[in-house]
């Protein structure tokens, strides 16, 4: 393919967002929103209230839940929302890779890559299950949360009830936040899990 044909192909097939400054605005907003999750969520409340072990996996599922909530809201606003979601997930994987590096020098890089690949597959399945739960009733949402947070192990139903109420309440609040507010304010006031 000659250069002129390649450039014509690249320009006509690339999304318009990549050709504007809006692209950088979305990417920057996503990374700041991700930091808002990582820095503002009280993970210990989640671990204690939901009887989760203080592990990398527990951190990951709590973080992914919050990424999904922002993403579910953003996806209602077309391409900009899709790009926001994509960059939130990219920020997550960048953070995961940094955390894995800090786990220790003795860690096995090839084993870590396999585990990250498994987490990526599980993340995709969880996002679909959460979407179904959001559209369904509390039983469907509780099932999705149980499978992801507790890996289908025995759990006190009160923990699931707390988690379902938290998600429903937070999603109601996010429904009143415009995509433009995500881009301008770049923060979310997360509700307390215990309310």
Characterise this structure.
- With 195 residues, the protein is mainly alpha-helical.
- It is built from nine helices and no strands.
- It has helices at 3-13, 22-40, 43-49, 56-74, 78-102, 109-135, 138-149, 157-174, 179-185.
- Helix 4 (56-74) crosses helix 6 (109-135) and helix 6 packs antiparallel against helix 7.
- It is globular.
- It starts with a helix and ends in a 10-residue tail after the last helix.
Architecture blueprint of SSEs:
Blueprint: H1 3-13, H2 22-40, H3 43-49, H4 56-74, H5 78-102, H6 109-135, H7 138-149, H8 157-174, H9 179-185
Explain briefly what this protein structure is.
Helices cover about 75% and strands about 0% of the residues. The protein has about 200 residues and is mainly α.
Shape, please?
globular
> What is the rounded distance between the termini?
60 Å
Strand residue content: under 5%
The helix tally amounts to 9
Find the structural class using helix and strand composition: mainly alpha
Largest sheet: none
What does the radius of gyration come to?
19 Å
Point out poorly predicted stretches.
6-11
Which series of helices and strands comes N to C?
Answer: HHHHHHHHH
The mean pLDDT is 84
In total, the number of strands is 0
Helix proportion = over 70%
Question: Which tags fit this structure?
Answer:
0% strand; 195 residues; mainly alpha; single chain
């Amino acid at each position: 393919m000659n250069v002129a044909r390649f450039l014509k192909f690249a320009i006509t097939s690339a999304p318009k967002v990549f050709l504007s400054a809006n692209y950088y605005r979305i990417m920057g907003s996503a990374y700041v929103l991700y930091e808002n999750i990582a820095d503002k969520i009280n993970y210990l409340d989640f671990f204690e209230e939901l009887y989760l072990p203080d592990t990398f996996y527990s951190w990951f599922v709590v973080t992914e839940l919050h990424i999904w909530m922002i993403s579910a809201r953003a996806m209602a606003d077309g391409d900009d929302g899709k790009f926001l979601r994509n960059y939130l997930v990219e920020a997550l994987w960048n953070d995961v890779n940094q955390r894995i590096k800090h786990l220790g020098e003795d860690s096995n890089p090839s084993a870590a890559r396999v585990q990250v690949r498994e987490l990526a597959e599980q993340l995709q399945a969880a996002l679909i299950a959460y979407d179904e739960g959001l559209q369904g009733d509390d039983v469907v949402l509780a099932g999705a949360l149980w499978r992801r947070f507790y890996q289908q192990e025995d759990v006190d139903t009160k923990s699931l009830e707390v988690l379902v109420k938290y998600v429903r309440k937070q999603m109601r609040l996010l429904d009143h936040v415009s995509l433009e507010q995500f881009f301008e304010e770049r923060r979310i006031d997360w509700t307390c899990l215990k309310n």
